[in-house]
Amino acid sequence: MRKAEDAFDVVIIGSGIGGLTSAALLSTEGFKVLVIEGNERIGGCCSAFRKNGFSFDVGAVFVLYREIYERLFELLGLSMDQYLDMWLIDPVYDIYFDDGQSVMIHYDVEKTIESLRELNPKEAENYRFFCKDMGKVWSGAKMAGELHFPSLEKAASLRHQFRRIINPAMLGNLPLTLRVALGSQQKTIDRYFGDQRFKAIVGFENLYAGLPAHRINGLFALLSYVCHEGYYYPKGGMVAIPEALADITRKNGGELITKSMVRRIVVRNGKASGVELSDGEVIPARMVISNASCIPTYLKLIGADKLPWLLVKAIQGYRPSIPCPIVYFGLKEKPPFRCPSAVLIGTLEKINAYWDEIYAKGLMARIDDMPMGLACPSLYDDSLAPEGKYAVSAILPSPYRIKYHSWDEVKPYFVEEVIQSVERRAFPNFGSMVEFWDMTTPLDFERELNLPEGAIYGLEMSLTQLGPFRASWKSPVIENLYLTGASTNPGGGVPLVMTSGIIVSSLVKKNWVA
Length: 514
Description:
Layout: E1 8-13, H1 17-28, E2 33-36, E3 46-51, E4 54-59, H2 66-75, H3 80-83, E5 86-88, E6 93-97, E7 102-105, H4 109-116, H5 121-146, H6 158-165, H7 168-172, H8 174-181, H9 185-192, H10 196-201, E8 232-234, H11 240-251, E9 255-257, E10 262-268, E11 271-277, E12 282-290, H12 294-303, H13 309-316, E13 326-331, E14 341-345, H14 348-358, E15 372-375, E16 390-395, H15 407-425, H16 430-433, E17 434-440, H17 442-449, E18 481-483, H18 494-511
Parallel strand pairs: 1-2, 1-12, 2-9, 6-14, 12-18
Antiparallel strand pairs: 3-4, 5-8, 6-7, 10-11, 11-12, 13-16, 13-17, 14-15, 15-16
């Protein structure tokens, strides 16, 4: 065990976005910080898988809500442009339907409407009304993101949080916002569209939230509008974000170690006082921040036998979001993509039926019946693949528990079916372009990133698991223990996780007693 005088001010378990946000902020404020990462790579679900000179995103695939990134770098006393070179994604999506038709979704709403007229002129105009209304609802969140933090210590203050949430844009559109928020995404979509293809266009992105449209809050309809506010991609891949935060932490004197597993959080007299590693080393700290999911944090790193039964019951009741295995393809030639992201989908009815009739029963659907996202950012960033070659990722929802097989058994067969499905639905000669493939299954995500049930999008984003219904930033039962990440308030996704890291850092500074 290290001597008491060698204790860190703060030990952070995990180098995901939440943990690294806290590390960068607290080290900037002069705290002695140590980040402990069990994996060999940093970033958690905003990381990179590298093989044979190719680089693939793991989890997060683009930047949205750019305002939050800008606010973070302001708190760090830096400019985001110093560390991240982002380009606007436009066109955003190339959507392929089961009937062979395809349509482009552009950054510009009017340009998108022109593209949609080829499918259905009347519904294309309805898309205009949809975007107009969703833009009004989004304006409140946008204004919240544009509000500058007064200081790190005041970032978590009720006054600042009230000003962010109850802002003029939100109040001005409150009736519309409530109308959307008090219903399901399905009800919101049905108000605007009758054509099943259009319903799928504005409904497939709930894939990233882990629930079908008829079971998720209406506010998630915003996901299909936000691309018109701007999706961005950092040069070097999404891993450039955690790498920037790690670099800032180190420059401020903070430390980061990888391939070191935390066995338990040391608790003495009801207070977190450090961590014990898998090799038995105990690292003392004044405060501990866990960037691991709240489920293993409480049930494994603390232990259910050391916690109040009511908290244990609440933690055990959390439901992870739907897992999404990722298949990585190294291509030896340029694929016929019209933009970096292609989406292969059927009707929204078909997407909803997948959840209720297939996924919930632990069955493996036909790949052709599953929504699939294909990403090829190397079309615009040649640093992600060897010269003349391209990196493509395929992501699609699948159950964690397969009723008749295991993921380790079906992996090669699954990949082959993905290739054949891509050929049938969009790109006929895709298989001949593949130089190599690899895959991360839900079991792999659970093993490598300690994600319950391999859920890369964290907890299910149902109404009872959003915002304040998620794990608290400050542990209610263990003093000096804080939690950040996708399982905490406000929710999953890089900007929301970044927000949790900011709030946790603010609480640590506010509660710090020198």
